[in-house]
Design goal:
234 residues, alpha+beta, four-stranded antiparallel beta sheet, 7 helices
């Protein structure tokens, strides 16, 4: 990673947690303490179990967060894009990161150190309250996802993933705007690469999706939603 200048006040990511609070005068002093880096595609910038070095905010790019599962296999637990926050699960409760993180494409990452984040939380009550609501929302999403996944078969989990990345990243020229390998799809869906390939091939034959290299395009959203409707897709 190399250092890169990225200015919060001219950032276009209105959903960024920092950007949302820049109207507060107290935030100005903390923004000056931020560090920004360019992280190349496939580079790891957070190692699971490593000492906590603050929170990361994605200025531009896409990132996957992973957690080690059974037999030491990494499982993707989250896909993120511009404006999203990385590393928050261990912050405040652990001195080490609970996840690992890799850039899925060349990305610009903003880092606020542990000390800076603690200063913000202690001096900007609006930020602290908003962060509390953010954690509550993330916990609710995680609990709902665990319940949902526990009752899904492999095909349903792959479909759920495809609909998730479609919602998250959208489609450009008929293809979802993120490039994932078949292994990454399998890791996120909690299955093997071979099973993921078979299911994608089946969905393609049924004209529910199309593929161009690693890219996938969804052709029939209502039909895919119907398959997992009983698991409360919405």
């Amino acid at each position: 990673m190399k250092e890169e200048s990225a200015i919060c006040y001219t950032c276009i990511n209105e959903n960024c947690f920092i950007k949302k609070h820049l109207h507060l005068e107290q935030m100005r002093q903390f923004v000056l303490k931020k560090k920004s880096f360019v992280c190349k595609k496939s580079d790891q910038f957070i190692t699971e179990g490593a000492p906590l070095q603050g929170l990361y905010f994605i200025c531009s790019g896409k990132v996957k967060t992973v957690k080690t599962g059974i037999n030491g296999r990494e499982q993707i637990v989250r896909l993120t894009k511009n404006g999203d926050t990385i590393g928050f699960r261990g912050f405040g409760t652990s001195k080490r990161y609970l996840i690992g993180a890799y850039a899925l494409e060349d990305s610009v990452l903003c880092n606020f150190s542990n000390e800076t984040m603690l200063e913000i939380l202690q001096t900007v009550p609006e930020f602290t309250y908003a962060l509390m609501l953010f954690y509550a929302d993330e916990l609710n999403k995680s609990e709902n996802n665990i319940r949902k996944i526990a009752h899904m078969n492999v095909r349903e989990r792959v479909i759920d993933l495809l609909l998730y990345i479609h919602r998250k990243f959208g489609q450009v020229n008929g293809l979802i705007d993120i490039e994932l390998s078949r292994k990454e799809i399998a890791d996120f869906a909690g299955t093997t690469e071979e099973q993921a390939i078979r299911i994608l091939s089946s969905l393609k034959k049924e004209t529910l999706i199309k593929t161009v290299g690693k890219r996938i395009g969804i052709l029939a959203i209502p039909e895919l939603r119907t398959e997992i409707m009983e698991h409360k897709y919405f």
